[in-house]
Amino acid sequence: MKNIVFGIVAVLLLLVITSCDKKDQIAEPQIGDLDYFVFGHFYGKCGGEGCIEIYRLDGSSLMEDTTDVYPNAETAYDGKYIPLANEKFELVKDIVDFFPDSLYSETENIIGSPDAGDWGGVYVEIRYKEDAAKSGFWLLDQNSYNLPDVYNKFVTRINEKIILINQ
Predict the structure, then answer these.
(1) pLDDT tens, 107-127?
(2) Which helix H or strand E contains 163, and what residues bound it?
(3) Residues 6 or more apart from 69 whose CB is under 8 A from it?
């Protein structure tokens, strides 16, 4: 009797596993699905090249903005980009994996008070080739006390990647 029950359970389990079609599986967006991903940090009361560091990542390259314009909340960042070495791309290409999905549901594109107390802000923009609902730009606070916890790790990761690029 135990063998019959075990056999039935095994057959049912096999049917469930093999009946799943690839189209039924939800695929997480990959870098290949992206048109581009822009990230960086900005500091208002600062002097020098490192005050505004904005980068653009696409499926095969990393580029650095040369305009170094302070981002605003009204329009997406309009940078002029130059390509960086492929080694830099390899260091940061996984940054998209850390993008918090909850940003898509934010009603405002300013989260916290970026650079309000001279602690800087983070700029993030994402564009998918065929999914406008998962596209947008945000300015995030660098002060962890002003930022919802769900975004603190992401801001930290962006700053880590900027450090890697500039080494």
Answers:
(1) 999 999 998 888 899 999 999
(2) helix 149-165
(3) 52, 77, 78, 79
